Amino acid sequence: MEIRILSAEDVARALSMREAIAVRRTAFTQLSAGQVTMPQRLRLDTRAGCTLFMPAYLQRSGDCCVKVVSVSSDNPGRGLPSVTGVVVVLDSATAGGLLWPPSAS
Question: Which segments of the chain does DSSP mark as H helices, in order?
């Protein structure tokens, strides 16, 4: 099994804005129809700040992902973003890891 780690640039090259909007529309349509399992996010307080875990499963399309975000108010003083994270997308057929695009803000 191959797990791909994508940069923000990789995601932008692989997915046009039109495609991104269509994917979001599909996800929000399932959400509004009650076809999404999305537990309340889990928060872990850490020495550096907090880490948030946000899983979701789209029942109709079979898509599953987990967004993990860490927040550290001290990071800007280190020249780092205060919020960093990853989104782990799982293969809908095998439930194996499919891609991990990093995120930061």
Answer: 8-14, 17-32
Q: How many helices (H) and strands (E) does the chain have?
A: 2, 8
Q: What is the CA radius of gyration of the chain?
A: 15
What is the distance of C-alpha 28 from the center of its chain?
A: 15
Q: Is the dihedral of CA 32, 35, 36, 37 positive or negative?
A: positive
The predicted model scores a pTM of 0.76
Neighbours of 75 (CB within 10 A): 17
Handedness of CA 29, 58, 43, 11 (dihedral sign): negative
Cα 63 to chain centroid distance, Å, stands at 12
23-42 pLDDT per residue, tens:
889 999 999 999 999 999 99
Domain 4-104 has CATH 3.30.70.660: no
Q: Running DSSP on this structure, what letter comes out for residue 25?
A: H
